[in-house]
From TrEMBL:
Keywords: Cytoplasm, Kinase, Transferase. This is Uncharacterized protein. It is found in: Cytoplasm. Signal peptide: none annotated. It comes from Oedothorax gibbosus.
Length: 113
């Protein structure tokens, strides 16, 4: 049984989902991921309200990791996260959407499940 912070774990996943923009709009990807999670375990309104902040924290951390790659490009683990520009673009996208809009996105997709 997991006794950790569920919202934090999901927020970390969502931070990465925002960077995979091959097939979906990043916000759609987040909506689908939250809906899938909610089909198994419902998050409270308070937990949902934290997700945007957690995604922003994760993207910031990934930006910092990207800068470390320039100092030590031989580290293969962090080299796979080297591209900084896509992360900055995603962070700008996140910061331009208010928390209430995210809650609406989560709700719209969750109602489809």
């Amino acid at each position: 049984m997991h006794h950790g912070p569920y919202a934090w774990d999901l927020g970390m996943l969502l931070g990465h989902a925002l960077l995979v923009k091959k097939m979906l709009d990043p916000l759609e990807a987040v909506g689908h991921a939250v809906a899938g999670y909610q089909s198994v375990r419902r998050l409270s309104e308070k937990e949902l309200s934290f997700l945007k902040m957690v995604m922003e924290c994760r993207i910031c951390m990934m930006c910092l990791i990207s800068t470390v790659v320039h100092k030590d490009p031989s580290n293969s683990y962090i080299a796979m996260m080297a591209a900084l520009q896509p992360k900055i673009e995603v962070f700008k996208l996140l910061s331009n959407v208010d928390n209430e809009s995210y809650l609406k996105i989560y709700g719209d997709y969750t109602n489809l499940v």
